[in-house]
């Protein structure tokens, strides 16, 4: 068994698709109409057949409340691994990404946190 798709609640699928593809550099894998919304997934450009990130509409009241509360408490919704966190931090800053935590060493890992403009804090980590 392996993880093939992981979901991330977003306030606006179009805005999220633009942010995750243009600012972060993920590659759109699927964009399938599903009634009012779409099945939109992205993958890492380094792993085109790897785990897909699903941009899930936060329309359900529980999803909306969950997203709002973890954001308010400063809890990242998910984490992405990077090879060189300082280099990635600088690249993302140049792309206009707003960080809430600069790269910070935490034991054997270094982490940074940014706002995805779609209702989430996202953590990047270098092990």
From TrEMBL:
It comes from Neobacillus kokaensis. Pfam families: Glyoxalase. Signal peptide: none annotated. This is VOC domain-containing protein. Residues 1-127 form the VOC domain. InterPro entries: Glyas_Bleomycin-R_OHBP_Dase, Glyas_Fos-R_dOase_dom, VOC_core. Transmembrane segments: none annotated.
